[in-house]
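I had to read the description of the data format several times before I understood it. For illustration, here is how one protein appears when written out as sequence plus C-alpha cells:
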Amino acid sequence: MQAEYIKEWAETYLQVVFEHMNAEPYIERMLKYQPGAGRLEFSKEFQDGYECFRYKISGRKALSAVYAAIPMKEEQIRNLLQQLIAALEDAKECLLSEEDFLIDPSYIFLSLPQLTIGLCYVPGYGKELNRQLEGLLEYMLNRVDYEDKAAVELLYDCHTICMKNREGLGALKKRLGEKKASFFEHDRPQESFVKEESLFYTRAMAGEKAKSEEQSYFSWMKEKFRMRLRKKEAEIPQICEKKKEMVVSQGFEEWKNEKGENASRTVLLAVGNREEQPQLIHEQTGEVIALKTFPFYLGRGKEYTSYAIERDGVSRLHFCIKERESQYFLSDLNSTNGTYINGMEVLPGTEQKIVSQDMIRAGAEEFLFCFG
C-alpha cells in the first residue's frame, strides 16, 4: 500500500493506492454520502490512469505526531479507544467490513484540542482487526505515561483481550467502561515479585506441574509492566545525581587561594561548545531557541510541542525537526498555513534536509536555522 499527502488549494488529503483496491458501488455510495461516526470524508479519484482513494484530513494531526512529544494519560487512552470502537460498530451496522479500516498511528487523524478521531476506511484493505488493534496498543504501550498506573493497567488489559483472549469488541468495550484499582497497588509485596520466570522454570525442573503457556505469558506481561514502572521510578534519582555530577565536572571548578587552601568560591566555566548546538533564531523577535532534544516539535499548543509560539497562522502542531547521523530533517505536520524552507513548501508526509542558515517559515513566522 502507498499513502501520500496531497494539497489542493486550502485542503489536505491522504491519498491511498494499493494492489487490491475494491470499492463496490454500494460501499462507495455509503462512504461518500453517509460518512458515519469516526470516518473521514472519502472520495475516489483517478491519477495517471490509476484509481486511488482520498481522505480529507485538513486541520487534523496524525496520532503518532500528537503523542510523539507527550506521554498518553488514562483518560486520553480510554477516549481514543472508545471512539475507535464506536466507529467500528457504526461501520458494521452499515454493512462495512471492520477489517477495511486503516488502524495505524500514522493514519489515525485527530482534531485538536478535542482529540476527535478520524479513520480511513479503505475498501479491500482486509487486514485482520485483532492484528491491527494489537499494533495500535503496542504503540500506546511505548507512549504511555508509566507514572499513570491506571493507564498502564488499562492498556495491559486491552492488550491481553486482543492478543490472547481474542474476545472481540464486546470485551474490549466492557473493559473500557470499567474503573478498577490497579494491580500495582494490591498485589504481592515487592520482595516476592521478582523472578517470576525463574520460579516457573525452577518448579518445572523440580518436577512440579508447570503452568500452561498462556498463564506463563500473562505472568510475564504483568512482571514486564511492573518492572518497567519501577525502573522508571528508580531512574529519577539516578538521573538527577548524574546531571548534578555533569554540572560539577563540566561547569564548575574548585580553586585554591594563594595560601593553598580551598576557597569557598566556584568559577562557572562554559559547558560544551555552544555553537555546536543547533538553534532556531526567530526573525521577528530575535529570540534564540535551542534545539536540545529530538524530535523537536514547534507549534501553538503548549501541551503537544517542544516549543510553543503564540502567533496567528501557526498551527497547534506545525513542524518537526529530527536528527539522524548529525544531519537534520524537517517535516510539516499537516499545518493549515504550511511550512517553507527558503521559500519552497514542504509537503506533509515528506522530510526535507535542512542545513545551517536555512530560513524556515511557519505561517507568517520566520526562523533561521543555525548549526556549527
